[in-house]
């Protein structure tokens, strides 16, 4: 049997291969380990410091305008309507003639009443003369007492008939004057309800409507809950109304512009509306240019009330959770904590906080959507 001896070259090759395998195993084992993570940067947020201060508040409500004096124009006598003397929808003045009713029959009645008065006055003159002749004769016993009583009675009856005739003449003159129908107020006249030539009677006697434009009334309502909440806040010192309840009211038109004249609340209905459960308030405002028209929808801003030492935070800082509203409060160590709060009304871009916060605390305004309790933040003042 022939054996071949191992050469030094073959041994060297085997040693090199083993070394390479060992190095690969060592490197592979090192590669499977986790590298240490770099520390995360603190999330950047903007914060606002809570400040308690007296804050004016404004209530805004839907309202509707109403003429402060709306006069329905009625005919006071029956007759044919001769003509309308105004432009429908135009401004009319006090005393301006609006309609005329055919006056000829009423002039005849005036003449008849005047003639009847003249007749009664003539009868009174005769009765007076008769009485003046009877008195001395009765005193001289030339005529009996009965003759004197008859003469006196005839005189008194004639005098009463004269007064009655005078009243009938005045009535006839009044009816004649009612044929000319004038506006009792300065305002805007509505559409004519009867046309020329129509016979006017008690059944169709309304002719038009005149609406006063200044001052204008603006009506709005508060619900029963709103009124009760307001009373409670006043009782607890959380709301201070103006002196003598003299609120100032702005009128906001449909395009968002503010009416140039301010109004005052002049009437509060003493009872609630049983159907709507609301409480009616009325504002009186000057409207010299007639910009506001009756039955127009507007908004009113009621100013003058103050919330003493109120706490306000931006609306975007308040979040809604499963248990209600909350805010993120930044502690002295820079860590955030969720704080439940009780919110009140909005005030512009801010929200009144009635419970949960106190002056000096810092609240996260922006960047709070991804925060977790206890996380330290990079707090920067809100701009």
3D structure, described in words:
By secondary structure, the chain is an alpha+beta fold. It has four domains: 45-55 and 310-381, conserved putative lor/sdh protein from methanococcus maripaludis s2 fold, CATH 2.40.420.20; 57-68 and 213-308, Efflux pump adaptor protein, beta barrel domain (Elongation Factor Tu (Ef-tu), domain 3, Beta Barrel), CATH 2.40.30.170; 74-102 and 179-211, Beta Barrel (OB fold (Dihydrolipoamide Acetyltransferase, E2P)); 103-177, Helix Hairpins. The chain is built from four helices and 22 strands. Helix 2 (104-139) packs antiparallel against helix 3. The chain is elongated and about 140 Å long. The protein starts with 7 loop residues before the first helix and ends with a strand. The relative contact order is 0.18. The model is unreliable at 1-13 and 20-32 (pLDDT under 50).
Number of domains: 4
- Percent of residues in β-strands: 35-45%
- Please tell me what the overall shape is: elongated
| Mean pLDDT across residues | 88
Number of helices: 4
What would you give as the CATH superfamily of the largest domain? Answer: Efflux pump adaptor protein, beta barrel domain
CATH class of the largest domain: Mainly Beta
CATH topology of the largest domain: Elongation Factor Tu (Ef-tu), domain 3
Which H/E pattern describes the elements? HEEEEEEHHEEEEEHEEEEEEEEEEE
Unreliable parts: 1-13, 20-32
Q: What profile does the largest beta sheet have?
A: 6 strands, mixed
Distance between the amino and carboxyl termini: 99 Å
Secondary-structure content class = alpha+beta
